[in-house]
Design brief:
The protein has strands spanning 3-8, 14-18, 36-38, 44-48, 54-58. By secondary structure, it is an all-beta fold. The strands form two sheets. It has a three-stranded antiparallel beta sheet with strand order 2-1-3, with no helix packed on it. Strands 4-5 form a two-stranded antiparallel sheet. It starts with a strand and ends in a 17-residue tail after the last strand.
């Protein structure tokens, strides 16, 4: 089951919710507001690079240990 991130337009708080099937949250857990929208989540992965080196990445952020803003330039 995926965990999605949501934003409440009423109280401006972000929250996460485990989603089963196509259900959406009924309300914000902080204020019970009904005006919530799903946010785009940053996905991440970990892979083994050459020589057994572990490389981590997350969308919208740079890898730890490099100054690039995109991992597309990593080699």
């Amino acid at each position: 089951m995926p965990i999605y991130e949501y934003h409440c337009e009423t109280c401006e708080k972000d929250f996460e919710q485990l989603v089963f099937g196509k259900e959406e949250p009924d309300c914000c857990p902080a204020c019970n507001g009904k005006n919530v929208c799903r946010l785009m989540s940053a996905c991440g992965f970990v892979s083994k690079g050459g020589g057994g080196q572990t490389v981590s990445s997350a969308a919208g952020s740079s890898c730890s240990g490099c100054a690039a803003t995109s991992c597309a330039s990593c080699g």
